[in-house]
Amino acid sequence: MTNVFPEIPIYFLSVLIFFLILLFNWAGFKFKKWQLEKYPGRISENLGSIEGSMLGAMALLLGFTFSIAISKFETRRQITVEEANDIGTAILRCDMYPDSVRNPLRADFKEYIETRIAYYEVGNDEEKIKEEIAKAGEVSGRIWKRVALQAQNRDNIALTTQMIPALNAMIDIVTTRDAGRISRVPRLVLFVLLALVLISSFVLGSDYNGKKRNRILIFSYALAMTLTLDLITELDRPREGLINLDAIEKKMIDLRELVK
């Protein structure tokens, strides 16, 4: 159940939700119309209090879900910037070593940067993401071995003491960033939110007193709810859609200049 939303493209999901809202509203309208035809003398109930309570609950959950989505998006943004800073720091500290050590290290860092750029560019392809993480681990392991070897040289102890914390930060943040990628708004929250939107649409449709329906109002409601849910989905899935981390990822691409 947790993978249902990610398997559906964002814009297809938005179109589906839009028509589902209209369908539930139409179903509510037809249900109320059938009731009035079957019981013509029946006085139409006032659903105002029910509608208000339901819309209030939906608005509360919408705000709560949006808050989670924007918080997770901001966390991903900060982690990406932090990783670029960690890699940049480690690259600059390579210059403290003599050329015999510095040049192989910078060559490894150049390869490492490409794996981290590819990690984002592969999008949501889990297999390729795992491949890039494995490649990054292989290259960072090679870098670590070179630095650890220098730690055995007494002349480089002071240099290595500064290099090791930078490498630790660079290696550790790979796991932190991937954890941020897979940490999303709980699927159950999204399902409950969608259910409330559809039930509210049904209740609004059933508030029919025999007069002509206001189609402009119905379509406006469906569009507003669809756009709100689309915004939450976009924030929750920044590797696709209009809201993404492309501008922040440029910080990682800019690191190529350090290893030319």
Description:
- The protein starts with a helix and ends in a 7-residue tail after the last helix.
- The chain folds into two domains: 9-41 and 185-236, no CATH class; 46-184 and 245-260, no CATH class.
- The radius of gyration is 27 Å and the shape is rod-shaped.
- It contains nine helices and no strands.
- Helix content is 79%, strand content 0%.
- The longest helix is centred in the first third of the chain and has 47 residues, at 48-94.
- It has helices at 4-7, 10-38, 48-94, 99-121, 126-151, 157-182, 187-206, 215-236, 246-253.
- The chain is an all-alpha fold and 260 residues long.
Q: Tally the beta strands.
A: 0
Rounded average pLDDT: 88
Largest sheet geometry? none
Query: How large is the radius of gyration?
Result: 27 Å
The helix-strand sequence is HHHHHHHHH
Percent in helix? over 70%
Q: Counting H and I runs of at least 4 residues, what is the number of helices?
A: 9
The number of distinct structural domains comes to 2
Give the tags.
mainly alpha; single chain; 2 domains; disordered N terminus
Quick recap:
The protein has helices spanning 4-7, 10-38, 48-94, 99-121, 126-151, 157-182, 187-206, 215-236, 246-253.
